Amino acid sequence: MFESHHHLLDMAHKTPENEMDLIRDDEYESKSGTDIMEAPSGDDQDPNQRPNKKKRYHRHTQHQIQEMESFFKECPHPDDKQRKELGRRLGLEPLQVKFWFQNKRTQMKAQHERHENTQLRTENEKLRAENIRYKEALSNATCPNCGGPAAIGEMSFDEQHLRIENARLREEIDRISGIAAKYVGKPMLSYPHLPTGASRSLDLGVGNFAPQTGMTGEIYGAADLLRSVSGPTDADKPMIIELAVAAMEELIRMAQSGEPLWIPSTDNSAETLSEEEYVRTFPRGIGPKPLGMKSEASRESAVVIMNHINLVEILMDVNQWSSVFSSIVSRAMTLEVLSTGVAGNYNGALQVMTAEFQVPSPLVPTRENYFVRYCKQHGDGTWAVVDVSLDNLRPSSISRCRRRPSGCLIQELPNGYSKVTWIEHVEVDDRAVHSIYKPLVNSGLAFGARRWVATLDRQCERLASVLANNISAGDVGVISSPEGRKSMLKLAERMVMSFCTGVGASTAHTWTTLSGSGADDVRVMTRKSMDDPGRPPGIVLSAATSFWLPVPPKRVFDFLRDENSRSEWDILSNGGLVQEMAHIANGRDPGNSVSLLRVNSANSSQSNMLILQESCTDSTGSYVIYAPVDIVAMNVVLSGGDPDYVALLPSGFAILPDGPNDQSGGIPEVGSGGSLLTVAFQILVDSVPTAKLSLGSVATVNSLIKCTVERIKGAVLCDGA
């Protein structure tokens, strides 16, 4: 039968105007049957039948065709008995039935091949268009060393093309491996990353064709840094699984135990882990505490407005995790997925990751961890996600921080809420932390469980506000259209992530201190922005400084977020009147909101400026982040357009308490002592990416930030007096 199929197909190819020798599409209904068409071959050969010399058509009736069509749908390969029965019922010879089915199968195969050809042709057109696009991009090739136009010989067309292709394929492998792992249930393959000799500027150009996986898009050059950490070897995997299972057991007991493991403070507002009891309870684990490191352990619970399934997905998807916790996670990457879980969810999922945790200030070094993350479903709608360090698998690396079993227990509650119990337990060498941040770091507020839970709670409220549809259109400036709200919140989210990844002491970028070594010295860094639709092209100068204020954080936050007091510190608004044009509340606290501000210039010859601003606050810190935006682009966003092409250069403030306070940490009055304020600006100093940075630009930005700091100090200290 297969030979017969091939024979008929060969005939079809030889006569392009016919699909098959005897049956044409347009004649199929009336001429689909034949008495004898060809000498059959293979298992279709009838030894008693001699082939007729003369081919003749035999018209089947409409009834016969319909009956055979419906039978074909059920059984395309009838046996002798079925053919005889069908022939008897329809008044046809069994051989006629046999050839009708044979021709029908051939025709179906031809139709299928034609459909496949059409698909391939479409795919081919897409690839051709992509190829043309690449050629156009490559015609503007830049030198990897200086950023200038590449002369012939500096970089061949093939080399540039291979770099772009390499980046595109790397993304494709990530995507396909993920899909394969999901559907086949096998672990994702880790693949060697080819070393690249490209400088940051070239990485930037390539990065536009393949966005970096699992990292916030701001970090230039960070991809290679994180990729230098390879996944585990096959020999290590059984040990990793054993470690993860033990860590899960430890996390559950840590989350559920009371005294003597956790010792409450006198007023029950906090609790401390008893190290002696911990060692006695968990003698195994990742070994004794290394010399020079100190323990930090904290536990915090909260009820959040998100169901347990979405919470688990956020924790197990590195992109969502980096986005939701962008103020804490400066960059993260999944190196290898050892298990994707079972039954279509994350139960049993196991992945090896690397991440960098930060405080929003250049004065606090980041903490880098190489760890395994394990997710498990326990009974009664309870899930747990645990991290534990794998530094003992990397004997060559000296780690300044390692994670003992840390993570969270998630309990399902009615109406889409969840109760989250978070454990943070690390050993760290924090001697490099600046003295003004030491009390905050030592209290556990900087990296502890309370900060994770407070951030999660605030972000869950923010996500709930994106989905809210009961918005009153009566209030002035409130955006009531769901599409406009969604686009504006998405743009604000990108702005916040951009600010957070650029303000800390991440090893992905290097700060240069302009003078001395005092706490409030200005630190600067530069980077080239090229071919990125989300930021203006040119040389961007970032400057940041952190300092202490003897004023409660809430007062500083309220002063900085209020558009009416903006002219007191914002030098770039030139004393113009600031009006709020649009407003989206995204949390219980009135301080959690996204605003669109208009600066009405005092000088009538200057055009008005629009500013997008997001302010957010919780018990562990507050942010006011803003960026000038184009009026035309914002109109597109407000009508629900794509916000990814709005160019942003965010600046802003991070306000932290200067240490633990006597209050239990309610949102209305965050902190009772002083504040630690970080001011960070991003200025486009030259719109040509290849230009050299002038010292004059650095001096201008330095004086701008220092003048802003003096104005803020003067205003809030005067208010507080």
UniProtKB/TrEMBL annotation:
Q: Which residues form the Homeobox domain?
A: 51-111
Residue ranges of coiled coil: 110-137
Q: Where in the cell is it found?
A: Nucleus
Transcription as a keyword?
yes
Cellular component (GO) terms are: nucleus
A GO MF label: lipid binding
> Which BP terms does GO give this entry?
cell differentiation
Q: Write down the Gene3D superfamilies for this protein, in alphabetical order.
A: 3.30.530.20, Homeodomain-like
Record's SMART domains? Answer: HOX, START
Compositionally biased tracts (Basic residues): 51-62
Q: Does the record carry Transcription regulation as a key word?
A: yes
**DNA-binding region located at which positions?**
53-112
- Tell me the InterPro entries matching this sequence: HD, HD-Zip_IV, HD-Zip_IV_C, Homeodomain-like_sf, START-like_dom_sf, START_lipid-bd_dom
Biased composition of type Basic and acidic residues is found at: 1-32
Please state which protein family the record places this protein in. Answer: Belongs to the HD-ZIP homeobox family. Class IV subfamily.
PANTHER family hit by this protein: HOMEOBOX-LEUCINE ZIPPER PROTEIN MERISTEM L1
Under what name is this protein listed? Homeobox-leucine zipper protein MERISTEM L1
Species of origin: Sesamum radiatum
